[in-house]
Amino acid sequence: MEYKRVTLFxxxxxxxxxxxxVNYAFRLKRDGKPVVIAxxxxxxxxxxxxxxxxxLTEAGIKLISSEFxxxxxxxxxxxxxxxxxxxxxxxxxVLDIGGDDxxxxxxxxxxxSIVKENNYEMLMVINMYRPLTRDVESTLEVMSEIELxxxxxxxxxxxxxxxxxxTTAQDVLDSLEYANCVASAAGLELKMTTVKEDLYNQxxxxxxxxxxxxxxxxIS
Amino acid sequence: xxEKVLMKGNEAIAEAAIRAGCNHYFGYPITPQTEVAAYxxxxxxxIGGTFLQAESEVSAINMVIGVASTGKRVxxxxxxxxxxxxxxxxxxxxxxxxxxxxxxxxRGGPGLGGIQPSQSDYFQSTKGGGxxxxxxxxxxxxxxxxxASLTFKAxxxxxxxxxxxxxxxxGTMGQMMEPVSLDAGEVNTYEKPWALTGTNCERKHNIVxxxxxxxxxxxxxxxxxxERYKKIEENEVMYxxxxxxxxxxxxxxxxxxxxxxxxxxxEARAKGVKVGMIRPITLWPFPKKPLAAAAEKxxxxxxxxxxxxxxxxxxxxxxxxxxxxxxxxxxxGMIPTPEEVLAKIQEANEGGAF
Lengths: 220, 354
Description:
The complex is a heterodimer. Chain A is of the alpha/beta class. Chain A has eight helices and eight strands; from the N terminus they run E-H-E-H-E-H-E-H-H-E-H-E-H-E-H-E. Chain A has one domain (6-213): P-loop containing nucleotide triphosphate hydrolases (Rossmann fold). In chain A, 37% of the residues lie in helices and 19% in strands. By secondary structure, chain B is of the alpha/beta class. Chain B is globular and about 70 Å long. Chain B is built from twelve helices and 14 strands. Chains A and B meet through loops of A and strand 1, helix 2 and strand 8 of B.
């Protein structure tokens, strides 16, 4: 698989960005790339890339995350090391962007360098079962809000439609039309569909570009 | 296609409120309930409602008093320190007999505390918080589904009894995502002849007020209010019983800790310990009768709560201290583990503690 030097995951609040970003970093690593994952979330103090710190470190993936993430300090701060991702350019980078336009503002600070390097992929994570992105129109609205806030354009769409633990293979199949419509309305390709691991075997023959997700567990 | 959607607890409260006919929301951001306000900010303009981020919690609750006076459905939400700031306004709502829904997604305290979940505002919610003789109806959801369904219920009860209904959740309930069905069913409407809707010069004007110049009149008003509270205690108690039929030990727990306790109870049952649970869904009115009945056959009770022991006092009162009540708790943002609850169940079963 061809990888860009920088892969960014953005999308609606709670669409599954962090889980997918962590899994994607592992996939890059398995393909032999040097990987760094950076957490750019300034909105939500919970459910952060840092929750997977142990697994990432053990796999040799570098994690750049605010020391306040998943702590009692509810502070929208980003670590200075994030600059190394856009300036040093030695590693493959996965950037986990905060939810909605509010979360994407922080990306604006790095957007110029990323666009100038011109070796990136910015992925819009979508979930049809989230109430504010139930249809194509509302999803496109969130998408353009994020683009305005970040100063960057999406390059492809990732379909992560699920209703949590209760998700069935049929729920995923039912979301494909929506995902394709979102992608084509935005003039982008549907890069992949992501499902939790236990649904992968049921779906891998009927769904193109299917990626299994190992869900993060909170480490306390 | 699944009719359910995947929501955070905070979002479920906000969407359920809108579907219950709440077109007015006033709030101020605070973790871990900020998604309620964020969701309202997105949705309200689209349905022609009002979302207003006030300059403070005190201001937000006074805006709630304003809308409630007109008889419209209205809500505010916050987390522990913010609810303390709203306490004065909640007392005024009670004094004016106004219906409103107040949401508290609790965090660790006291003071600024921390942003992790807690249940240590039990006293504040069920015993007062503000000044004067009054009660709030207090509903304690234990799933994202209940965050939605109890919000529907909260609006109904608030209107039915003309008083504040409170949703007492915690940071875990607010932040966790689960599938939820948002069907509100029938939304009841209630006559509000007292509402400030304009007289059209056709009737005497209404007055919404909590000031009484004559003590006799104020006393009478308090008596009347408590007659209403008595009816609520008779008619509106909600609780869930889990494996109580042959239980010798009764766990009492609400919200997120009841889910932890359920796991521990299942493990204890597998070891042959006869243990069950009474989960209060209404914290006020408290399910006194089922607890008193359980005291006749159980040898011990365990209060599992994320406070230094607040609900335990209501359990002891409900069972008239007939049986020992053990406390299993974590505080400050920590959640008890199933193992900790299991150990306490075994301790109660062996009778070592009493």
